[in-house]
Specification:
heterodimer, A: about 300 residues, mainly alpha, ABC transporter involved in vitamin B12 uptake, BtuC, 14 helices, about 70% helix, about 0% strand, globular, B: about 350 residues, two-stranded antiparallel ribbon, 13 helices
């Protein structure tokens, strides 16, 4: 294995990691507020297609990114409306959202298949840092959205752990009725969390079509939304741990396309099972351990809150 | 009921969508109807689609009667299809009846086997079955991909990821037009399960456990054992769907052998309000929507429109379901949303 190909692998690990992290962070925020959203795959697809379309139409990657985030938030709000507003079953609504998102993305993008990108997020130049051996090409030559993902992760971590808003949000996911009694709007908190989650999934999709594979094709999300759902559990609902998990899972995605060039005789398809198998193992470990310690999962996750029924 | 309202809402929103895209909605809808329910041949195709949807829906509904979510039907269908295809590989020279029976039993076993892990984890450790079954979907999907790209790839498939065609005697006989025998299998299984859940002591305990874990414990029902059997049974039924789809419709193992039937099954079960007896009708209508949706591509409508229409039906039905519950509560009747079985 040459140095260049190893650097290529680690570079791709970081960029796929950031891609997964954005979506997983969004899911984490929604789940912290008590709403399971299984529509990540659909929201990513919408983000990917709207970013690409906006890129072609407006020729500006940042406008494209913002439009993708707004579209993701808008689609997520459908889930918010049904689950938070109407108290519908979260699993069913989330799966329906995936179908809706994938369908809408294919519909919106059908005239853009195969077109050259109108805008791309070009890698950031960090001056001398980018020229350092190893770390330069791996860490300091990434697309701007990678650093944005890192900042958002730190911000989300701080907001969740040490602000009133974060406390209220977590409370809504632990015990909605006591949050309500404390004078917070469970409805507002949960709706915003779901929308924020959608915006982040949209950003993740935008990263795909504005940088990683700058073109639009149906199925470009390729099941990565489900990895994001897995990541939240893998990281035990903690932004920091989810980040490390994202790098690990990103590494498997990066390795998948490179196995053959490295001369490793191992099926890339079998390798791509790894994130899910690892998540299952972690889940088992958590539950065995949580006999002594409380489970890291938000207590009210998946439960509808209706005032009159508390 | 909820499904009907959902369908009406979907037709309305779909009309807007089609008008927006410059199509004539009436022409599209009549084409959808013709292609799915217009004549016996159309019925046959719709029924063939309703079979995996109904069995997958039943699988989810069996678990749902107890307040459990089997999100893993998609993977269990794959596992069932793999097991059935494996039997067909080793038993290519067995007589037809024995081969098909063995294939279907293997399919049941394969689906059940994939559910064993989540079932044990849920029953013994209280691990959320939604996530474990969801993860195993992705594993099973990749297992099929690996098989048809690698060890089981047909050398004559011009490099397409396809397993070899099943031998002729491994295929389910047809009933009329293209409708295959799987219809009778699915109908029989749905009837048996409906009776078991509705009229037997076993089913009664199941529903008690679904509505209140505490009540079930006080009345001496062993919840872990119940959870275990119900989830494995649910996986087995989904596995059967995979075997029937393989031997009835697909005729060979492919990456898309399930084609989203497992996820559609969740929706079918939810629209049937998790009642096994309601699954058949919903699966038939849902099958018609899918087959009709595919047919409009010949009119120049993108296939994504039918996906979007399906999503509209879903959200319409979810919304209608919620409002019907509110109306019930206004009538003064006390109602309870099935609480998750607490084990």
């Amino acid at each position: 294995m040459s140095e260049a190909s190893l650097i290529g692998l680690l570079f791709a690990t970081v960029s796929f990691g950031a891609l997964l992290y954005l979506a997983a962070l969004g899911e984490l925020i929604a789940e912290k507020a008590g709403i399971l959203n299984l529509g990540v795959e659909g929201m990513m697809a919408i983000g990917a297609v709207t970013a690409f379309i906006a890129g072609v139409e407006f020729q500006n990657p940042w406008v494209a990114l913002i439009i993708a985030m707004l579209s993701g938030a808008l689609l997520a709000s459908v889930h918010g409306f049904f689950t938070v507003g109407l108290g519908a079953e979260q699993v069913v609504s989330g799966l329906s959202l995936t179908i809706l998102g994938l369908g809408l993305a294919a519909y919106l993008g059908k005239d853009y298949v195969g077109l050259p990108p109108g805008a791309e997020l070009v890698p950031v130049e960090w001056g001398g840092l980018s020229n350092l051996p190893w770390v330069g090409p791996i860490l300091f030559s990434q697309a701007p959205i990678v650093y944005l993902a890192l900042l958002l992760g730190i911000a989300a971590s701080l907001v969740l752990s040490s602000t009133r808003l974060g406390l209220a949000l977590r409370a809504a996911g632990e015990s909605a009725s006591s949050t309500d009694s404390a004078g917070h709007s469970v409805l507002g908190l949960r709706l915003s969390a779901v929308a924020a989650g959608g915006a982040l999934a949209g950003a993740s999709g935008a990263y795909l079509t504005l940088s990683i594979t700058p073109q639009w094709a149906e199925g470009v999300t390729a099941g990565r939304g489900w990895i994001a759902v897995a990541l939240v559990i893998f990281g035990a609902w903690r932004p920091g741990r989810v980040a490390w998990g994202a790098l690990l899972f990103g590494g498997t995605l990066a390795l998948k396309t490179r196995l053959q060039t490295f001369g490793v005789d191992f099926s890339p398809i079998i390798l791509s099972m790894l994130p899910y198998v690892l998540t299952l193992l972690i889940l088992l470990m958590i539950s065995v351990r949580s006999r002594k310690r409380p489970s890291p999962s938000p207590a009210a996750l998946g439960l509808a809150y209706r005032r009159e029924e508390r | 009921m909820a499904f009907g309202i959902g369908l009406a809402i979907a037709l309305f929103l779909g009309t807007l969508l089609l008008l927006g895209a410059g199509h004539d909605p009436l022409r599209i809808y009549s084409r959808m109807f013709e292609a799915s329910l217009g004549d016996p041949d159309a019925w046959a195709i719709t029924l063939n689609r309703a079979v995996p949807l109904g069995l997958a829906g039943l699988a989810v509904a069996i678990a749902g009667s107890m307040g459990l979510w089997n999100i893993g039907a998609e993977g269990q269908i794959m596992a069932g299809a793999i097991a059935a295809a494996w039997v067909a590989r080793i038993g290519g020279d067995w007589p037809g009846f024995a081969l098909i029976t063995a294939m279907l039993i293997a399919a049941i076993g394969g689906g059940g086997l994939l559910a064993v892990g989540p079932a044990v984890a849920r029953a013994k450790l209280g691990v959320n079955e939604i996530i474990t079954t969801l993860m195993l979907n992705e594993v099973a999907i990749r297992l099929v991909q690996w098989l048809v790209h690698g060890p089981w790839k047909d050398p004559d498939s011009f490099n397409f990821p396809l397993a070899p065609m099943l031998p002729d005697q491994a295929r389910l006989p047809t009933l009329f037009s293209r409708a295959h025998f799987g219809l009778l299998i699915a109908a029989a299984v749905i009837v048996m399960a409906s009776v078991a859940v509705r009229y037997t002591a076993w089913g009664y305990e199941l529903r008690i456990a679904g509505s209140s874990g505490a009540t079930a414990r006080y009345s001496g029902i062993s919840l872990p054992k119940k959870v275990l059997t119900v989830l494995v049974l649910s996986g087995a039924v989904a596995g059967l769907a995979g075997g029937v789809e393989l031997a009835g419709t697909a005729d060979r193992l492919t990456e898309t052998i399930s084609n989203g039937f497992g996820f559609a099954g969740i929706i079918v079960a939810a629209l049937a309000l998790m009642r096994p007896s309601g699954v058949a009708a919903v699966a038939l209508l849902f099958g018609a929507v899918q087959i009709g949706g595919q047919s409009i591509q010949t009119l120049g409508v993108s296939s994504s429109v039918s996906t979007i229409l399906q999503a509209f039906v879903l959200f319409g039905a979810i919304g209608a379901g919620v409002f019907s519950r509110y109306r019930l509560s206004l009538d003064g009747g006390s109602h309870s949303i099935p609480e998750k079985a607490k084990s």
